[in-house]
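Q: I'm writing up a methods section and want to include an example of the input and output format. Could you take the sequence below and give the corresponding predicted structure tokens, formatted cleanly so I can copy it straight into the document?
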Amino acid sequence: MTSLRNIYQYLLQIGLLIIVGIMPGPGMAQIPFSNQKEKPAITRILFVLDCSQSMSGYWEKSRKIDIAREFLTQTVDSLEQVQNVEMALRVYGHQSVVPPQDCNDTRLEVPFGPDNASMIRRRLRYLNPKGTTPIANSLALTARDFTPCDDCRNIVILITDGIEACEGDPCSVSSDLQKKGIILKPFIIGIGIDPEFKKTFECVGQYYNAAEETRFREVLGVVISEALNATTAQVNLLDRDGYPSETNVNMTFYDQESGKMKYNYVHTINNRGNPDTIILDPLITYRMVVNTLPPVQVDNISVLKGKHTIIAADVPQGELVIQSDGNRYRDLGIIVRKDGDMKTLNIQKMNTGERYLVGSYDLEIPVLPIMYIHDVQIKQSTTTTIEIPGHGIVTFLLNTPGICSIYTLKDNAIIWIYNLRQNITNEAILLQPGEYLVVYRARNAKRSFYTIEKTISVRAGTSQSVRLTF
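A: Here is the clean output for your methods example:
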């Protein structure tokens, strides 16, 4: 299987292996990043080359276009041997002579394809600088160049010797493309550009200034390395004391710009007792959601290229166990909410344990009558146990179907809890221990006078029959 060794050899030739911190060996990662699935994603690199009139000017020993052509051809040669990489070439400023200024002078010369390196080399050979510099328009049209692909990393490498010459806004175009998830943050390589123009490109993407010919060769190697190589990271899930002791929870990484989900990792403590290493694409700024109860979000995470990045999140947790006397209510779901918040956080099964962030919670227990338990405290690394009294079983026997309701008695008032079904003559109900009032009238009785009421007492673990007749 072809691996990244070819690109490593290219980097070795230009003396960049130490700079980017890559150590070749049998454990080299294959490109690129798709949660380490068996079938890796395809990295699509679109070279956007400036072929405006100024590129015909001399830069040290040769013309700028000739220098760019030579090193870009060498790069294409190297990438041709790398698996799961596709390339394309867009050129601007090569069709119309200035003046007049043609701001639509941009064209996809070679579209993406698995075996198009020879086409790119051939097209590079015959480029002739003529026109203007429509950077914004060229970037905008890359949206068409990257055909739809669910598992692709779309990278733009812009090589230019000048700034926007038309009325476009490259910064706005780049931002829009990233928010839509069409491209990752672009790379811009400036050839002999005045250092004062650096700020012009920083909002467009990752800018590299090649102030001299030898520097251009190095910069191009660095960009290719960063475009292809994964970066390791470690997520420290911190407890209340600031120690990375929390684990066994899913972490979801989203593209901060587009909102698209990129990775899911279940946090793991490795055999050495440390949070395990994960692989992230260094070209993305992330929003991480730790899927605790409730979830914890960390925004604007940038991983450092070629370095091991530590990401921290405060997720102190404790356990909540809800159980019933005699293991009753086995299939009951208890509604758990954050204290003072009516949004349902979780429906926890009876007689099970669940981990929650440290804090105060409210419980709604759908027994009869409904129970509300407020201000349940979850503490760090502690199990909080809530006991629900066991129920009693009451079977109601009616001579004829009718209107029958069950109430609790409180402060000289009755509170409704349940209506029996009107089309049957017997029904078994699970009730919590306590005193109840039953009010009944046969459906075929046409006078309120025939209403009857009866007081019953329920004890846990018992069963009884209640006959209602007039």
